[in-house]
Amino acid sequence: MMLANASVAVNRRDPVAYLLLLVVGSLIALMLPLAKVAMAAGMSALGYAFWQALGGGLLLCLWSTRGATGLPLRRTWRYFLVSGLTAIAIPNALAFIVVGHVGSGLTATLYALPSLITYALALAMRMESLSPLRVSGLLLGVVGCVRILLPDTDGVGSGALPWLLLGLLVPLSLAIGNVYRTVAWPEGASPKQLAPGMLLSGALVLLVVLVFTGQIHQALAPGWEVAWVLAAQAAVSALTYRGFFELQRRSSPVFLSQLGFVIAPMGLVLAFLIFGEHFGWQVWLGVGVVMAGVVLANWRR
């Protein structure tokens, strides 16, 4: 495996990359309300994460087999396994656990935090050069997220803090995956080929966890209501990760990591529209700071 020629720094004049950032971020934000509905109906977090990955992966397999050649598993199994762990199994399982305790709006803000970790890793691997303007923008985005997460803001009780701290493993895992997928991108592979492999590998890891912890029965849908949610989640996952890999191909890990700056405000908006979750002015102030950070991090003369 090697650094893919296709995975290059984002062309600042490429409107598709910015459109993908908006669309993929919004789709990921939509996953959290769907997860909350399913778990309120009795679905477990691990079981839901398994079906989310498996359903999306199978749909993408059907799509990718049309006119596309497969990739040799002996060259890609490690890429799929690490990608599935860092982008699917660990962050989604944790997010679906946390969402049941703090709500979908605040859980979405965790996705805004991988940017600085990704930038630090990219600097260490000489994939990015040090830019004071970009550092300032990313720091501003994180400050906005911290403002949202502080326990004294309206809508965030002190009892939610332990779950939010657990949720901090979500951005750490995502940041590692952002860099790894670019560095280890299999030569000659396309996003259409890589997306289903990552989802199915994540599903396999979650299945192993369910079996060895004796929780395999929790993967069963408790009713038709949840089954319909799982079907919707599979479709959303397929669209999300197909666009996700296309964005990774067109951009850099740091640009990709700013998906979280879309997920955080969109998650709050969806939580308000779907569940009527209310947030104080401090939370929305944090959203404004996050948006200012996005503009600053991507500012070019």
TrEMBL record:
Positions of transmembrane segments: 16-39, 45-65, 77-99, 105-125, 132-150, 162-183, 195-214, 226-244, 256-275, 281-299
GO CC terms in record: membrane
UniProt keywords, alphabetically: Membrane, Transmembrane, Transmembrane helix
Pfam families, sorted: EamA
Record-annotated EamA domain positions: 17-149, 162-298
Coiled coil feature spans: none
Domain of life: Bacteria
InterPro entries: AA-Vitamin_Transporters (IPR050638), EamA_dom (IPR000620), EmrE-like (IPR037185)
Main subcellular location of this protein, as a coarse class: membrane
Membrane topology per record: Multi-pass membrane protein
Localization in the cell: Membrane
Family: Belongs to the EamA transporter family.
Protein's recorded name: EamA domain-containing membrane protein RarD
Organism, as annotated: Marinobacter mobilis
